[in-house]
Amino acid sequence: MSHTIDLLNIAPQDAPRPAGNEPRPTLIGLSRPELARTLVEAGVAERQARMRASQIWHWLYVRGVSDFAAMANISRDLRALLEEKFTIARPQIVAEQISEDGTRKWLMRFPPRGAGRPVEIETVYIPEEGRGTLCISSQVGCTLTCSFCHTGTQKLVRNLTSEEILSQLLVARDRLGDFPDAETPAGAIVPSDGRKVSNLVMMGMGEPLYNFDAVKEALLIAADGDGLSLSKRRITLSTSGVVPFIPRAGTEIGSMLAISLHAVTDELRDVLVPINKKYPLAELMQACRDYPGLSNARRITFEYVMLKGVNDSLADAKGLVRLLKGIPAKINLIPFNPWPGSNYECSDWETIERFADFVNDNGYASPIRTPRGRDILAACGQLKSESERMRKVDRMALEAMMIAGHGE
Ligand code: SAH
Ligand code: SF4
Fold first, then answer.
1. b vs e for 181-213, b when ≥16 Cβ sit within 10 Å of the residue's Cβ?
2. Which domain does 328 fall in, by range?
3. What mean pLDDT is predicted for residues 108-137?
4. Which ligand 2 atom sits nearest the alpha carbon of residue 240?
5. Which residue numbers are catalytic?
């Protein structure tokens, strides 16, 4: 049986913070140069800043500490200064659920930004044979309105900051024991191949390419070899197809790419994934062909949700094979995960298998993503729906903020 651990006894929703009561700025989620600059601004001597930044980086991302007092090789005076001016605390974990199949889900609460309200997001951990995948969110809600996606029915509340994106990984590592205990000697760091979180997918809430800068910053820190050390080949960014940002994701982040395809004609994709009206299939496929570093060992994943009677015919499978011609690709068939009020049903199992077999016979790996953590409603891409229903968060539409600077 699944079980839920309530880690905090807090009211469902805090009131907005009164103006002028901002928390101390965080040091989590800053790039190394930003970290060094921030230290200088706080009074650390310029000639020491790089060395101090490296030490702090090690404590934050190798040792996983969340308290300045644990930074043993940093002088008492500097620790006091850091403590006074900054924070490295984790977000509140409101609840942790553990499914009977080992899938875990955390509900995290982040403090308000400015005069806004606290926000809550969910992060899901999926253990599999030989690997463990963490599914993280990039936004609270989404501006896009894919017709089969529960997040698409929710307004965008706000972009997550790089700290908040990265904190999802830090919390998972804390809870899964991927960081050494504060007391263990430095030699006892969990080696990368023994860690529970080996893979990261940006497949939670939100469209990561509409929060490009924060996502980039967080993923580059997650991939940093002197820190969290996740290989870029084990980080996958999933997009509904924000074409102008796809080349930038390739050159500036260098992670693996997943495309939420779901339809093989513009006519149907306009309905399922409406951003297709702006960036139609021909443009999307060209951006995929041009994605830097593609090879048979480094393929693009195409996600395809199986919707009964909508996109699951053999003609669709043929169209898919034709569309992907020449692109090193694998296809992820996702059984549709229904939600209350959705207008779709999941395809029959035989239909999904027939579809998968056709695509397989034509040379594309096409695993069917088995539903995980159903007992805790943990499907990636459908995060938060249950807690949403329970909590009815009073949302503020801050769409303008998200789009600012991205010319969308
Ligand atoms: N916004 C990004 C990433 C988050 S969604 C994107 O669209 O790619 C992660 C994946 O889950 C996407 O492929 C999305 O289309 C899919 N998804 C969303 N709702 C779903 C549902 N109800 N059942 C199955 N898959 C769903
Ligand atoms: Fe947003 Fe992705 Fe859901 Fe579409 S599928 S509404 S882009 S989260």
1. eeeeeeeebbeeeebbbbbbbbbbbbbbbbbbe
2. 92-390
3. 91
4. 7
5. 122, 380
